[in-house]
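Below is how a single chain appears once it has passed through the pipeline. First comes the sequence as given, then the structure the pipeline wrote out for it. We keep one example in the README because the format questions we get most often are answered faster by looking than by reading.
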Amino acid sequence: MRFEEGQKLRIPDKRLPEWVTVMNALPLAGGVRLFVLDANGRLLPQPVDLTDAEAARVLALTQDGGGDSARVLAGMWTLWMPKISSTLFTAILITGARELGPTRIFSAGS
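Resulting structure:
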């Protein structure tokens, strides 16, 4: 596998963050040495040496345009709704209470 600067990789069995970004790749006899960044853009302290067999098991994240956009949108919506609904409900309660005043809140139901 050929590694390029900026590629996002999942490298198994190396005790690395789940996804890393290639900063530089140097070919070695029978493998490759990778200098990678974590998700915050910090260079990991040690380079990652991979044999050709290990390099073949690396998963590279690529943008191929083949994803199901409806499923992606549904996933994003599912993660977003619980967060926004709880804060929106709280904001409505606070705003409503401030505008109505305490006497009107308790008498509104009667």
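The chain is about 40% helix and 25% strand.

See the next section for the split statistics.
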